[in-house]
Amino acid sequence: MKKYVVYLGIISIAAILLAESCRKPEELTDDQYNEWLSGGSQTVFNTGSGAFGSQFAGMSARGNFNHEVGDAAFGSTFVSAPAPVHQGLGPVFNSVSCSSCHVSDGRGKPPGPGEQMVSMLFRVSIPGEDEHGGPMPAPGFGGQLQQRAIAGSTPEATIGITYTYQTYFFPDGQSYELRTPTYMLQTPYCPVPAGMMLSPRVAPPVFGLGLLEAIPEWALLAHQDVNDADHDGISGKANYVWNVLKNDKSIGRFGWKAGNPTLLQQSAGAYNQDMGITNFIFNKESCEGQTQYQNLDDEPEVSDSLLYAVAFYMQTLSVPGRRMADDAEVKRGKQIFTQAKCSSCHVPMYKTDVNVAFREVSNQTIFPYTDLLLHDMGAGLADNRPDNLADGNEWKTPPLWGIGLTQVVNGHNNFLHDGRARSFIEAIMWHGGEAAPSAQFVANLSTDDRNALLKFLGSL
Ligand SMILES: [Ca+2]
Ligand SMILES: [Ca+2]
Ligand SMILES: [Ca+2]
């Protein structure tokens, strides 16, 4: 409680600063904003295991109610029909609830040795594009591999994951180990089409997304430099993807390749593909056109209002505030973050659009540390599977806000799209392609400076 009072004080100072400079906001430097407030007014100072699960402050009673309905739906376990509630699971699916993958509103991880995949999934496609420029569904498998099925149906396939391990040394003599995954498609229920491509993805954290959705498109495009016209080695490309309700393309913001335009569509797609739950946006079972399809699509299996409530829940989770932002070593780490050009992609600060209809996300200064753009990350991280404008080497820069609380909330430090990294330093040393010079810069740091950088990441 005490902390809130202190931060309220800081908020009002920040508000004065903002008000004084509102004529020329573009001239404000990072330091003039309050970096403690990663999510602007939607920042929460909770450093415990629930750090990713707080609802926005200052919502109306109706907003709080919708958030709570969405929260309950996010945690609901679906079962196969007939059942009194939450029926319609499958016929094929990845998991039984949103929260079984987005654990505590945080991230998933790859399975351990001998375990089944729980909070991770595989996208699939064959070469070519669908009618909207998206990935071409694989005959028999569609756009996603479902490794589980209800009684009477067959899982599409399972995936075996093995790792090879290699040790490397920094110039200062310290060592680090990287593990490289290999994926094996096992027991497919039908012949695998030639050239089928697999894209492994762990569930990313889901807090702060309403603020990312509120960043104006022009502000994202301002960082775009598709052909690296300024020759700094960093490109950055917006993905443009099919927006079902708009019946047109929109900028992609969500998913590891920015393959999804809105939180509503992402949530509807998750119900449909990840759980086999039809809805008004995706009203055919994921196995439509395949042998397991039963054509039982007359009624959506999740109601429109519950779908909207879950999407609203995704829009209204607060961002954890910074810890130790004024610590001398953390501040030095932040300078190194800039010197290493991490901030070229992990762009620290944005201002959200003015939005009178959704004032909780309106006009907020936020510190997400992402540009939401696609970058070539090199062959080491490539999935070699295109996704709209993203090619096989490209990934969206993930936000880094709250990343220092991953261990506390999720009990692991598995990072990157497939969870292969087991620490910050492993995640950094996997950076290739456009980001290779940044990784090289970090490799050549003194032990103290590298530790300062890692401490800074831990403070986000
Ligand atoms: Ca179903
Ligand atoms: Ca499928
Ligand atoms: Ca550039």
Structural commentary:
The chain has 460 residues and is α+β, with helices and mostly antiparallel strands. Among the domains are: 1-34; 64-209 and 262-315, no CATH class. The protein is 24% helix and 15% strand. It has 11 helices and 16 strands. The protein has helices at residues 2-20, 61-75, 209-213, 217-221, 263-275, 304-315, 328-339, 406-410, 424-429, 436-443, 447-458, and strands spanning 43-44, 92-93, 120-129, 135-136, 144-145, 148-149, 158-169, 175-186, 197-202, 240-243, 248-251, 319-320, 350-351, 365-366, 374-376, 394-396. Strands 3, 4, 5 and 9 form a 4-stranded antiparallel β-sheet that branches. Strands 1-12 form a two-stranded parallel ribbon. Strands 2-6 form a two-stranded antiparallel sheet. Strand 7 (158-169) and strand 8 form a beta hairpin. Helix 7 crosses helix 11. The longest helix has 19 residues, at 2-20. Residues 1-28 have low confidence and may be disordered. The chain binds calcium ion (3 copies). One calcium ion binds next to loops.
- Secondary-structure element order, N to C: HEHEEEEEEEEHHEEHHEHEEEEHHHH
Outline the low-pLDDT stretches.
Answer: 1-28
Average pLDDT, all residues: 93
Q: What is the CA-CA span between the terminal residues?
A: 21 Å
In this entry the ligands are: calcium ion
What class do helices, strands and sheet pairing give? alpha+beta
Extended strand count: 16
Largest sheet: 4 strands, antiparallel
- What is the overall number of helices? 11
Helix content: 10-25%
Proportion of residues in extended strands: 15-25%
Computed CA radius of gyration, to the nearest angstrom: 22 Å
Shape from CA axes?
globular
